[in-house]
Amino acid sequence: MLKTACINPEIMSTLARCGHGDKILITDGNYPIDSNTNHNAKKVYMNLTHGIPTATQVLEVMLKTVAVEKAEVMIPDEGEEPAIFREFKSIIADEELFHGLERYEFYEECKKENVKLAIATGEQRVYANILLTIGVVS
Q: What is the tens place of the pLDDT at every residue in 116-135?
């Protein structure tokens, strides 16, 4: 399923074990990664410092490394759509792949057994969490 681009050995090792339908979680700096992900998922703490790296930087690398068939985000309970969603959509470049889930529904999806990798970033923007479903390389 690998395409290349990522050089982090922990991430590459985990991605090499993934297949169609497995999931990758990219989180912002506020996401409770230990309590709201599958306990068997490989957790990679890339949050070097505030804002580094951003969730969008990690997303760009993941899209160059694996095929993605679906991307899910956590929708706020109220208010406008977070600006980060426009950036996610722009990077993914196929709005049909983009889906929103309510907060607790998103947490439940992240706890499922098919979530194999969770990457914590230094992203400071809220709701900058995205759950990618690995697709098939054509």
A: 999 999 999 999 999 999 99
For 97-125, b where at least 16 C-beta lie within 10 A, e where not — what string?
beeebeeeebbebbeeeebbbbbbbbbeb
In-domain check, residue 2: no
The reported pTM is: 0.94
Q: What amino acid is encoded at 106 in this protein?
A: F
Residue 41's CATH number: 3.40.1650.10
pLDDT in tens, 56-67: 999 999 999 999
Q: Copy the structure tokens of residue 60.
A: 């760009």
What residues have CB less than 8 Å from 94, skipping those under 6 apart? none
Structural domain span for residue 74 = 9-134
Task: Look at the block and give the residue holding tokens 């490394």.
Answer: 65
Q: Output the six-digit token pair for 33.
A: 């990664």
Measured distance CA(57)–CA(90) in Å, rounded = 13
Residue 53 lies in a domain: yes
Q: What is the pLDDT of residue 1?
A: 53
pLDDT at 113: 97
Domain assignment present for residue 15? The answer is: yes
Decide if 19 contacts 94 (C-beta within 8 A).
no
